[in-house]
């Protein structure tokens, strides 16, 4: 599944990094602890978090993640959005809580296999 397909199916808002909407999603990872994501997320994962600062882009780039989803309607900080545009890694937003969006993404990816 591509990032743009997930956006459509889950009604996600694109905050930045629209040039990366054709990235393929291979799985997902949910965590707010950067060291946890750095150690355990896999290339092609979509990352669900409430973190909005620039360091999330460093992790997303290092791990070659497909996109970041911010929960609870959060938006990226300005420098984070700028880095997202530069890296071509989309930052998306949802009004849903972490638990809700993680479950929806799990089901969506499970049915796509």
Question: What is the secondary structure topology, with strand pairs?
Answer:
Layout: H1 3-10, E1 13-16, E2 27-30, H2 34-40, E3 45-49, H3 55-62, E4 67-70, H4 78-87, E5 91-93, H5 98-112
Parallel strand pairs: 2-3, 3-4, 4-5
Antiparallel strand pairs: 1-5
Helix pairs in contact: 3-4
Protein described:
The structure is a single chain. With 113 residues, this protein is an alpha/beta fold. It has one domain (3-112): 3-Layer(aba) Sandwich (Udp-n-acetylmuramoylalanyl-d-glutamate--2,6- Diaminopimelate Ligase, Chain: A, domain 1). Helix content is 42%, strand content 18%. The chain has helices at residues 3-10, 34-40, 55-62, 78-87, 98-112; strands spanning 13-16, 27-30, 45-49, 67-70, 91-93. It has a five-stranded mixed β-sheet with strand order 1-5-4-3-2. Helix 3 (55-62) runs parallel beside helix 4. The mean pLDDT is 97.
């Amino acid at each position: 599944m591509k990032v743009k397909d997930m956006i459509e199916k889950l009604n996600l808002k694109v905050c930045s990094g629209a040039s990366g909407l054709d990235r393929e999603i291979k799985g997902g990872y949910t965590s707010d602890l950067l060291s946890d994501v750095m150690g355990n997320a896999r290339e092609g994962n979509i990352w669900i978090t409430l973190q909005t600062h620039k360091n999330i882009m460093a992790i997303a780039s290092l791990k070659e993640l497909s996109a970041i989803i911010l929960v609870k309607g959060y938006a990226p900080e300005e420098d984070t959005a700028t880095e997202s545009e530069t890296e071509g890694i989309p930052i998306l937003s949802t009004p849903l809580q972490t638990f809700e969006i993680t479950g929806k993404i799990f089901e969506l990816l499970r049915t796509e296999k």
